[in-house]
Amino acid sequence: MTSTTAIATARPAARTPRLRILPGIGITGQIAFWTVIAVALLAAIGPMFVQVDPNAVDLEYAYYPPSPWYPLGADASGRDILSRLIVGSRTALLGPLAVVTMATFLGTLLGLVAVWFGGWVDATIVRVIDAIFAFPGILVAILATALFGPGLLAATIALAIAYTPYIARIVRSAALRERNLPYISALQVQGRHGFAISARHILPNVSGLIVANATLCFGLALIDLAALSFIGFGVQPPTADWGAMVGGGMSGILQGEPGEALAASLLIVITVAAVNTLGDRLVQRSENRA
Amino acid sequence: MTALLTVEDLTVDLKVGDEMRTVLKQVSFSVGEGQTVGLVGESGSGKSMTVRAVSRLLPEGAAVTGSVRFGDRDVLDLRGDALRRYRASDVAMVFQDARAHTNPVRRIGDFLTEAMILNGKTGRRQAEATAVELLEAVGVHDAERRMRQYPHELSGGLLQRVMIAASVAARPRLILADEPTTALDVTTQAEVMAILKRMQQEYGMAMLFITHDLELAGSICDETVVLYAGEVVEQQRSAQLHRDPLHPYTAALVQARPDIHRRSERLLSVPGHPTTAYEAPAGCAFAPRCRFAQDRCRAEKPALEALDAAGLSRCLRADELRGALLAPVEAAADPVPATGLAAGPADEEATR
Amino acid sequence: MTDTSSTRAIATRRTTGAAPNDTARAARRAPWGPALAFLARRIGGLLGTMLLASFVVFGALYLAPGSPLSFLTQGRSVTPEAIAQLEAQYHLDQPFIVQYFIWLGGVLRGDFGASIIFGDPVTSLLAQRVGNTALLLAAAAVLVLVIGLAVGFFAGLKPGVLSESVMALATAAMAVPGFVAAVVLMLVFAVQLGWMPSYGMGEPGIGTLQHLALPSIALAITSIAFVARLTQNAVRAEMKSEHVQTAVSRGLPSRFIVRRHIIRNAAMPVLTAAGLTVAGLIAGSVIIEQIFQLGGLGQFLIDSVQKKDFPVVQAICLIYVATFIVLNTLIDIAYTLLDPRVSLGKKTS
Fold this sequence. Notes:
Helices cover 72% and strands 0% of the residues of chain A.
């Protein structure tokens, strides 16, 4: 054992130089990474190339089969499925992005504050985090819909709150480990301010882990938001959205016209698979480095 | 003395990623019945791999050539039940990290008795009584209670005693001790070492003792084999090792240790980093760190040769340097920053 | 749907190893002392969390735009008697905190008030539906525990092409949301092949089982994959562990090593994570019930949200959250008390 590991770490094997934007995540990680980039590009610039009005209803073309005019066919209202998928990618991705951004910001703040102040502040934060953790994201979002009516905004904020404990717990435990390291006490002895130490030293050291877990949260938030839109609580018609398209395609399923639901499902699965894989690899990478 | 264990031309290549890396090169030595042989070297020298080859615990995908003979059996050819019987009754391992090497969710009693019950066909009662006796023999007080405890309730020193008790329980003919005291604190080290030695003598077992500590090997082993970069560089009787090292590497190791009998102005260290077999240079593997190295040392591969009756050395200049290896080092001759040896147990981090 | 996130987080916080410490020594002196203290702490935490959760569910009423009364009536033309009834039910004339405690007192007696739409007591409305939800959850839980653990242990113990392909499939399955699985299963088995009914609960007995097949698979699929992967990882980690190497070096029979050293060690953490995954199924069941129209609590919840029947929404949310918390706590207690690696002194949350 001794010699194997010694050898393994002794000299990094000479690799063929290759363009690697994100090293250390393996080939599967690279495939996942570029898939995520591709989906993001689809959402960013795809809609610019859409020539057809994705919301144009034409009942004469209901369930129209794939053809040069409708590359992926038309839905129950005769709307072009392909352009709805492309335009819908924006709502499908921006929602989870907002959820994750908010949850990561709040969670990181809570985690760092809890670790830095410790004592009753920590105890209170932990208790509140535990209580929120008991509410599954979907349930919080449904409760929010009951209060504020259906819509993407309420669902997004609700999910952000529901996901905050997840990030906060990870940040708290990582920062706790970091805080107990001697170099932090050394900085304290030098009279550095607590917040400065958290922001300048602890945060950069746990940021890899935060990004990795935020990525995993993105996949989960995408699923939750799509599910909400699917049951009609999230994105409202006629706005195009992947989850809403699966829901809208349900009637097609029962009539043997599954095109719309399947196409949107496939995009959801591919995106979630890529994001999850990337997140897993990033978690592994940050654990390897720790 | 009849040889119990004979290792001949043992070469091991390990699979690291997509390539095979050599960790042992044509290692040969033997252990006689009841004899203690020390295997000394730095991390990466291949000493642990040697034990693993003998106990057939090499990682998957390892390529092994040469031979390991135990009595009249070829260990490397053992399969299935024969291999299991060999491990169960002929050799026993004492590992460095006793805590990692005991199952955390099973009690000490289960650990001690499971092998007796399953391999020795002993009844549970009988096995438990034997286990208690053994625990008392290795200096564990309150053995009855210890039997019902979990490993995490015991200190490292106690757990290592349990490990020793477990290994001698099967009455093996050979104990393979892989740095059994490195993870313990100094006072505990001495106690555990004494117990190990006493058990060995009481049961008349042979021992292959792995250590990075030349001093320790010198004090408990009959014969010492020094490994460097996967090769044997010196082999001789332990008693002579300090006074008359045959290889510059051994001499450097001797000088890197403080000695209460020898007053020195400063403690020396071996310059440079330890090397593994895989990255060893073309000539003598030790040449880059050797203060006696000449141009031909870097070009020519030395063979392991006998030096009159004293022992074996793998050094081109062994004859001419004999007796001069322990000469004081001038300050100027030590320009490379010191690393490695003097620091002592450098092995633990490598085992993770 | 959130099951993976919660179990992942919990799985990570469980990896802290137990070193010899003071509690262990204390445990030798008084074996039950620390265990009782731990139980008391854990149950105290449970009650605290429940209280907070109930406060959130009740206080939500005040987060809504407009006055609570107008929110509850939602612009419906309501008779003065109905308004009086609502005011009495929510004690809207009282200060907020008094309202909360009156409401909580009712909840503890099993009184969730009356439905605004049906006028019936919420409790009796829920009682008619809770059975279907329990059946769905039980069926999915059995699938997760049986298939997930079996596949995971097999793939862990027998590395090879088959195991690798099964695990690749599991990784892919983890990216399939429950509602997507439901849609695809319905399309294939109900619409195309016609083997299974596409919605409803059917006649009690065989009919119910048949009606539950697709929903429970759709609900369980992500969790099965998650548990299988987790189990495989745990088994692989144990197989590579040093203590298993010791067992091998002692010449113990491999079947014994697998049973007593590998499976035994992997079982506790894996069962715990699997249990938490099962608790996480509660959230996913809402969507699945709605898709397959199973007439359980989940479908009723969505219905009530659409009809703005807030007392029902409150009651179902609280029941879901409470069940989730209680299950989590029970699993955590069982794990801590049964696994000697976890020391009681350490706070597990």
